[in-house]
Amino acid sequence: MKNLYQILFFLSGTVLLFTSCDKVEHPYQNVASIDLDTSLYPDGTWEDYLANEYPVFTQNTNTDVNVLIEDYTGHTCINCPTAADVAHGIHENNPSRIFVASIHIDPGAQMVFQESYPDDNKYSTDHTNPDAVAYGLEFANGFNFFGNPQGTINRKTVNGNMFAFTGTWQSRATDILNENNLKVNIQSVFNYYPSTNGGYLHVELEKKTSEAINMNSVVYVIQDSLVDWQKMPDNSDNEFYVHRDKHLGSIDNNPFGVNAFTPDAASGDKVILDYSYKIPNGLDVSNMHLLIYVYDTDTYEILQVIKQKIQD
Prior knowledge:
Blueprint: E1 4-9, E2 15-21, H1 46-52, E3 67-73, H2 80-93, E4 98-104, H3 130-138, E5 150-153, H4 169-179, E6 184-193, E7 198-207, E8 215-231, E9 237-250, E10 258-261, E11 270-278, E12 288-296, E13 302-309
Parallel strand pairs: 1-11, 3-4
Antiparallel strand pairs: 1-2, 3-5, 6-7, 7-11, 8-9, 8-10, 8-12, 12-13
């Protein structure tokens, strides 16, 4: 019988427990103390949540690989609005299988197009975040990332380059969809409670290949849209520019995620990940979603991604 592993997390991303068993009646069974933020559940005791709210995942019948476009952008970059339109257009042509994360950072996190000016009535917003900075530093050398706007398509390396200009984004995405080499499946549930403005994300991962791949999982927090200043291609300043799919960081403040499968994991092995998450002040839950992905830690290539709404 295949193994079912469980990983429990709280907001800081600390790993609390690993278990392995042949059959799990309830993923939290026999766990006396779990350092999730149980106060986000308003309708009874934590035992009530475990008994009545925790999801039971059915067999994941998905057979399709999805695509994540990571658009590396900046609010004072005049060519970035055009790149954002390209990414959004590719998503709109296949909205159930192609998703976008607009990441405000440049190579080396030098803040060339990212700087905010608190005393400026235009570019006072800081769109960066610590996770984005980590990506800017990590991908500064050896990945063909040398400026904004550039992007990755499932971080797949093509002709030696992970990062590419907009002219190849569609073809790269199409190639991945056509190849449809599914190596891991993802399904998820978010239980959101308006009275506490937070809740719990539950993710099931299933390895679908016998390849020896070390896989990590990451959960992006995405703001659907934000109207704010942007430098435009004609060098004008647009006060009413719509920044789409803005990357706010990861749910557990861990930019490179947590280990889901070690190379010796068998095809059919499953992992359950649990997180608690409270919506940060100033954000509207109806204007947010999550992108959950699994990637190969040796190559950074994203193997699968899904979108999860926080509030239905």
